[in-house]
């Protein structure tokens, strides 16, 4: 039986990955999808066993050997990169010395679709590969939708957590954030300097200029504290006009003292509000955690608070470093 052009066209539609071999094992025709695997050369005219490596059955080196495999599953791969794996079956041509070999990708289909930019049009309409591609496409779309949803949920969760740990007026951390950060640093034995800042005369601003003026002062103070700290430090508003700074890894009292002086000086800068000028000062208390595990957050905050009220007792607008003797002097008036 002679294969006509019309028959080859039908085979191209029904079996787009077939090859026709002559009696010497040379490819005389290749289906359009199979030809896509070799975009830089024409398969027609190439010896089949030069283009494809037959791994099973083994030791097949010529056309006679290929003919003896008729009806068996052939395991092949391309000899050129990418060395895509293929499955196939050979059928001898009636009344001729040649053969037809129909090939498929098997479990390599997903890699092949990606490597050769194949789509549904490259396969026979009844090929189960089409169903697989649709399933993979649907799965990919579902996974992408799930990924985007997870990203949105993660973003919403991060935003909600950030909002829960943020003071809405100043943008600083809040007490809840501080109660999350400080115990972790103590448990990890991370040394730090702790500074408690309390505004002097802030109530007078609120009483005489109103809460909007007070908010402007608090925002000014927040800017001063942020500019006086580093990204790895924590700045929190823990009360109406009370702030806490945690200086990660900084325990040198001279350095902490210079920072406190700068904070006090900057906070005293008058804050214009509408047609008025608002003036406050700050008292500061400092305690230090050296990284030992014999203390806790409440103790450190209490020490800084004791030092803070020593500053207020000393006339305000100054800083005091905690000393155990401050406890022995008893409560100090604010």
TrEMBL record:
Native source species: Shimia isoporae
CDD domains found in the cross-reference section: GGDEF
Domain GGDEF: 190-324
Any single Pfam family the record assigns to this protein: GGDEF
Name of the featured protein: Diguanylate cyclase (GGDEF)-like protein
Gene Ontology MF, one: catalytic activity
InterPro entries xref list: DGC-Regulatory_Protein, GGDEF_dom, HNOB_dom_associated_sf, Nucleotide_cyclase, Rev_trsase/Diguanyl_cyclase
PANTHER family listed in its UniProt record: DIGUANYLATE CYCLASE DGCT-RELATED (PTHR46663), GGDEF DOMAIN-CONTAINING PROTEIN (PTHR46663:SF2)
């Amino acid at each position: 039986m002679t294969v006509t052009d019309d028959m080859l066209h039908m085979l191209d539609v029904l079996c787009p990955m077939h090859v026709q071999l002559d009696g010497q094992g040379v490819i005389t025709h290749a289906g359009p999808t199979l030809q896509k695997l070799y975009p830089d050369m024409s398969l027609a005219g190439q010896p089949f066993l030069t283009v494809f490596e037959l791994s099973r059955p083994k030791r097949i080196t010529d056309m006679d050997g290929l003919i003896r495999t008729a009806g068996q599953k052939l395991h092949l791969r391309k000899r050129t990169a990418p060395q895509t794996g293929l499955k196939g079956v050979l059928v001898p041509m009636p009344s001729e010395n040649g053969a037809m070999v129909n090939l498929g990708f098997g479990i390599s289909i997903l890699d092949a679709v990606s490597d050769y930019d194949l789509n549904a049009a490259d396969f026979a309409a009844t090929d189960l590969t089409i169903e697989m591609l649709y399933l993979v496409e649907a799965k990919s779309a579902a996974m992408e939708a799930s990924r985007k949803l997870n990203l949105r949920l993660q973003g919403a969760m991060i935003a909600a957590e950030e909002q829960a740990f943020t003071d809405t007026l100043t943008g600083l951390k809040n007490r809840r954030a501080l109660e999350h950060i400080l115990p972790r640093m103590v448990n990890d034995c991370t040394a730090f300097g702790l500074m408690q800042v309390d505004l002097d005369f802030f109530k007078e601003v609120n009483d005489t200029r109103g809460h909007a003026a007070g908010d402007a002062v608090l925002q000014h103070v927040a800017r001063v504290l942020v500019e006086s700290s580093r990204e790895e430090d924590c700045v929190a508003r823990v009360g109406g006009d009370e702030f806490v700074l945690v200086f990660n890894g900084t325990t040198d009292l001279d350095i902490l003292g210079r920072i406190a002086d700068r904070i006090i000086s900057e906070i005293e800068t008058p804050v214009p509000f509408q047609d008025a000028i608002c003036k406050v000062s700050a008292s500061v208390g400092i305690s230090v955690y050296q990284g030992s595990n014999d203390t806790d957050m409440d103790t450190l905050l209490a020490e800084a608070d004791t030092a803070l009220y020593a500053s207020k007792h000393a006339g305000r607008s100054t800083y005091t470093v905690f000393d155990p003797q401050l406890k022995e002097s008893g409560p100090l008036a604010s």
